[in-house]
Amino acid sequence: KLLQQMSMNEQDFEHVMIEKAMENVVEKFKKHLQIMKPALELLLQQIEENAETNGLKKLLAVKKSLAQFQQNVDNVMKAVKSLLDDDEVMVKMKLRVEEKEEIEVILDSFAADIDEIDTEIKIFIDMIEDTDQFV
């Protein structure tokens, strides 16, 4: 979205593609959280009202699924951070100074979005652990 402010002529195709790909990843992760949140909240409420084995088994499955999702998010974050930290990769991309700065802005913005998603995952995990403690 940062590059949408510029005219298409001023943007390199690669920059647009990188930004769009990253937007798609963020949207995919956010949709996953949006789907998971109401189901998790309902399950936690049911367990607090009636802590039965079936509900706890479901909670364990959700916890495992959430751990896998968090690992995927962490892997994406590591890849972006390593790209930002590796000047050699930027040199290999043969970017002009202003192009390098644009790519870094896109990657920084993406990293912030991923970090926000990671924080929300941690909140979900805390909710599950609080319920585990309650039970």
Report on the structure:
This protein is mainly α. It is 84% helix and 0% strand. It contains four helices and no strands. The longest helix is centred in the C-terminal third of the chain and has 38 residues.
Question: Proportion of β residues?
Answer: under 5%
Q: Tell me which oligomeric state these chains represent.
A: single chain
Low-confidence parts, pLDDT < 50 over ≥5 residues? Answer: none
Largest sheet: none
SS elements, strand count: 0
- SSE run: HHHH
* Residue share in helix: over 70%
> Quick one: overall form?
elongated
Number of helices: 4
> Span from first to last CA?
45 Å
CA gyration radius, whole angstroms:
20 Å
Overall SS class: mainly alpha
> Average pLDDT value?
85
Write the layout of secondary structure elements.
Elements: H1 13-49, H2 53-85, H3 87-92, H4 97-134
Keywords:
single chain; 135 residues; mainly alpha
Short synopsis of the structure:
The protein has 135 residues and is mainly α.
